[in-house]
TrEMBL record:
Keywords: Chaperone, Disulfide bond, Electron transport, Membrane, Oxidoreductase, Redox-active center, Transmembrane, Transmembrane helix, Transport
One GO-annotated biological process of the protein: protein folding
GO annotations of cellular component type: membrane
Primary localisation category: membrane
Pfam families: DsbB (PF02600)
Residues that span the membrane, as ranges: 7-26, 38-56, 63-85, 114-133
Membrane topology: Multi-pass membrane protein
GO MF annotation terms: protein-disulfide reductase activity
Record carries keyword Membrane: yes
Coiled coil regions in record: none
The protein's name: Disulfide bond formation protein B
Family according to the record: Belongs to the DsbB family. BdbC subfamily.
Subcellular location: Membrane
């Protein structure tokens, strides 16, 4: 892409789609999020606003501000994926009451579970932000 702001726009689109998907699952499908899903929402929702404002004004600082959200969100999503795949002991589950983080019942797009979609969204945004920051520094 010749114009670096298009990369930032693409990162915003990924965060907006992830945000709308999370809102759809919670508000329309009435599925209560688990503790780890709440943390991932807390990190994804601000990126939709920050990257939206930054992509429409071509503000490089928005990528810098969104980067910590993408890094920490990737960590939470990766831990959630390991938990769902039974690669983390069940004693390390952060939720003690309510919806269990280890039991993911919802799978879309042919069996892909929500934590894997979340991890792919955070990592995609992270890669796009790194690419944008490299291209816009010249």
């Amino acid at each position: 892409m010749k114009a670096p702001w298009r990369v930032l726009l693409l990162a915003w689109m990924v965060s907006a789609i992830a945000t709308l998907g999370a809102l759809f699952i919670g508000e329309v499908m009435l599925m209560t999020p688990c503790t780890l899903c709440w943390y991932q929402r807390i990190l994804m929702f601000p990126m939709a606003i920050i990257l939206g404002m930054g992509s429409f004004s071509d503000d490089r600082r928005s990528a810098v501000y969104a980067m910590p959200f993408a890094v920490v969100g990737s960590g939470f999503a990766a831990y959630h994926c390991l938990l769902v795949a039974n690669l983390v002991p069940k004693t390390w589950v952060p939720c003690s009451a309510g919806i269990s983080c280890a039991n993911q019942e919802l799978a879309i797009l042919g069996g892909v579970q929500i934590p894997w979609l979340s991890l792919s969204a955070f990592l995609t945004i992270l890669v796009l932000l790194i690419h944008y920051l490299k291209k816009s520094s010249k």
